[in-house]
Amino acid sequence: MRNTGRQKSIVTLVSFRVQAVHKGRADSVVTLQFLGGTVGDVTLDVSDMPKFKPGERVVLFVEKNGASASPLIGFYHGKFSLQKDASGRDVVLKHNGEPLADVAELGHAKRPGTRHVSRFLTKSSPAKYGRAPCEATIDMRRAICFLLLATAVLPSFGYDF
Amino acid sequence: MTTKGLRWRDGDIPMSLQLDDTMTARVLIDGKNSWNAVAREALNIWNDQLSHVQFTTFSSTQRGDGDNHNEVFFSSNIFGHAFGDGVLAITTAWKVGSERVEGDTVVNDAINWDSYRGSLYGFDDSVDCAAFSRTSSVTRSDSIIPTMPGRWWSLS
Fold this sequence. Notes:
The complex is a heterodimer. By secondary structure, chain A is mainly beta. Chain A has one domain. Chain A contains one helix and nine strands; from the N terminus they run βββββββαββ. Chain A is globular and about 50 Å long. Chain A starts with 8 loop residues before the first strand and ends with a strand. The longest helix of chain B is centred in the first third of the chain and has 13 residues. Classes of the chains: A mainly beta, B alpha/beta. The interface between A and B is large, with 37 and 39 residues.
């Protein structure tokens, strides 16, 4: 890891194999840059930064990759994991692992029920965050939306500003 | 205090409060006219809950990420990275091995801020106490946060 005076940083590049693009354009493999990561025994953690496991299937709301600390809208609020239910259908999970019942519930008290991916992705109204402690109102329509399959490539490196 | 494998060395955690350096002073809803005073109060509240470590505060103009100094300030970016739409504040946590060595809190200066007590706007959490809970390595879900005074909230 390199330093320049009092400023140094760590970013992590995460590559995703794209399964479907629901808004915007993307290559078959997309690499996103997240502030934070580990180089040797030095780690930089950034609050609410999303983390990924190799092979994890996710829906991502992407914006300003490489320019913002997080390329996902609202940090981990822009990541949704997909998990098969008993019938084999994909269920959309929020950052806390709870099923997403309705886009309108983002940042609000949980509601019963689950939302399946096909309905979720056709929802046209924006998501509004109201009570999350580090996010204000966020308009998800600004994002390029990908439906992605995460790969096992999770490199970290340090660089100077 | 330790969570998630992070631990500060026992003793003081010096915090460089630089909030007043770049944000125009005015009378806040709670009557204070200093952002640093609001932050200092929040840190003192946490001190009442901490035993092995204690926050101390001082004034400094030094600012940098990964410099082993803990800074709290308003900025338009996170050490050169954009906040992203609607992001109010972030906390960084540097560690070497399992020891926490730095925690900066960067507050988005594009947001209209104020400070007040109680649930004036019906929110159930607060930015400063949540941010400093991360600095102290206390989890944000700690039950004392919603009842704490010294709140900042975006009014926009």
